[in-house]
Amino acid sequence: MERGSSAVLISVLCCGIALLYIPIVTLIAYSFNASPLVNVWGGFSTAWYAELLHNRQLLAAALLSFEVAVTAATAALVLGTLAAVALVRFTRFPGRFLLTGMVNAPLVMPEIITGITQLLLFVSMLQLFAWPHRGFTTIVLSHVVFCSAYVTITVQSRLQSADRSLEEAAMDLGASPARAFVDITLPIIAPALVSSWLLSFTLSLDDLVISSFVSGPSASTLPMVIYSKVKLGVSPDINALASLIIAAVGACVLAAGVMMRRAERRRVEEIQLAQR
Amino acid sequence: MRSTWRPGRWLIILPPFAFLLIFFLIPFAFALKISFAETAARVPPFTDLLAHGPDHHLRLAVSFGNYRYLITDEIYGYAYLYSLRTAFFSTLICLALGYPMAYAIARSSKAVQGILLLIIILPFWTSFLLRVYALEGIIRDNGLLNSVLLRLGLIEHPLRIMRTSVAVYLGIIYSYLPFMVLPLFATLEKLDRTLLEAAADLGSPPWRAFLDVTLPLSLPGVIAGSMLVFIPAVGEFVIPSLLGGPNSLMIGRVLWDEFFGNHDWPVASAVAIASLVLLVGPIALYQYYSVRQLES
Q1: Is A23 at the interface with chain B, CB within 8 A?
Q2: What is the pLDDT of residues A86-138, one digit of tens each?
Q3: What pLDDT is recorded for position B76?
Q4: What's the DSSP call for residue A132?
Q5: Counted domains in chain B
Q6: Which residues on neighbouring strands pair with residue B51, listed in sequence order?
Q7: In this structure, is residue B282 part of a structural domain?
């Protein structure tokens, strides 16, 4: 019975993993297909990758998406961390309930609703203040909203588990609260900061719906260009582009994971050394 | 202790508070306002609620026409129910598939666990849009699935999956399965193994021990995973738009078409406000009360 149920469990696990990976692996394999026909294997070729380099529209969109993602992730990291500190450290202040709601709501709000409401805000703001024009600025502003929510959730849980007494000891020794935060707390929550920046970066890089609403006619992000191409039908150069993005993101995630594991191990070793 | 923080307190609270207030909360007020306007051939394409009449007096022009339209045109009710149904059944299937997966991972050794978790998490980091596109390559009429089945002789004609509701279900399950597995794993991993041994010692067969011990104890994970799948699935746009057929009208797609296809901003705003009340409201209330229950 025990062995039989284990076999069932493991086969379901394998099926699930196969479901998750077969589409991606197939896509990468077909990006090296010489034939432009999607169902015919015409031999190995890197022609589609070469073609990407000549597609100005895609390159411009990729550059815009990258700039948006870096700006939005960095701004979201600052705002989201501030919100996390506020929510964890200050148990009572007017508006705390509202801030909690505004931090959690973007996580359950369908993107399409956030997108349209933000567009309506930007349009009204443009009428009133002649700012912001739809494009880079509006895309960044709207991305910061949902990214900062993810940052706050991640940093909040790390802050809650962090040892408060270290910071208090620093302040007893004469450090200012800001100084104690930068020297003591910041290194403790650093892994959460790194992973939430990376998460924000990928979420921003990937966003289609909100960007489509708030961007103007002059600015198209990479997902917007990909979506309109895919909507028209499958094209082999999108396979190549997708493979590149997946490879880049996969490498970054693995590198970040290894880095964080190493940092964590070093921290544990230092604590053990200190305790000896 | 806390008093030393006081001067700097508002420097910390205010920036995120003001930012989220302006760019997240206030937009809903604008959407509410515009949902009571009418379309107009101008930029932006809707009428003002406050307008100067011919006698130069300010007049309030509030129109409930958009909401009346949502009720009378049956496409919106259909899309609402279709979204709920699709999200509900995809969540169930994700649970049926994800539970054994999480259980298998929880029972494997620590070293294997780390690798398996990484395998489950990695797709979550890769682009959602590109993964939906990759799935299209499998389930297309001339895609991998049909080629394999045809070659094996299992079918004589290609299966028609693309542009059907089946494709939408597959898309949601494929995209959100990791969200189901991870919280389930987190609760199953913490499960006290000795409880199962005790049940076995008392003569309970394994399936009975599972139903009486494992399942109830993993309920928080089941609920968390189900919410993580159901919530994004119900407002999904990309999957029904790329994989679904003309009948796969989920509420997100209807809103998109109203906005980009018909350029009817007031009706799109009304759809957004109505979905907020009818979809997001209940979910938010549920979460609020379940968190409270956990705290008490």
Answers
A1: yes
A2: 999 888 888 999 999 999 899 889 999 999 999 999 999 998 998 899 999 99
A3: 93
A4: P
A5: 1
A6: B59
A7: no
* DSSP code for B257: I
Return the pLDDT at A16.
Answer: 95
Judge contact between B100 and A6, C-beta under 8 A: no
Model pTM score: 0.90
* ipTM of the shown complex: 0.90
- Mean of the pLDDT values across residues B89-113? 94
Domain that holds residue B230: 73-263
CATH architecture for the domain at A55-275: Orthogonal Bundle (1.10)
For the stretch A57-71, what's the b/e string if a residue is b when 16 or more beta carbons lie within 10 angstroms of its beta carbon?
ebeebbebbeebbbb
- Residue identified by tokens 């797709």 is B123
Q: How far off is chain B from A38, nearest CA to CA, in Å? A: 8
8 Å CB contact between B198 and B175:
no
Is the model more confident about A138 or about A43? A138
Question: Torsion angle of alpha carbons A253, A254, A258, A260, nearest 10°?
Answer: 10
Can you tell me the distance from the alpha carbon of A229 to that of A220, in angstroms, rounded to the nearest whole number?
Answer: 12
CA A159 to chain B, closest CA, distance in angstroms equals 15
Interface test with chain A among B9, B22, B23, by most A beta carbons within 10 Å: B23
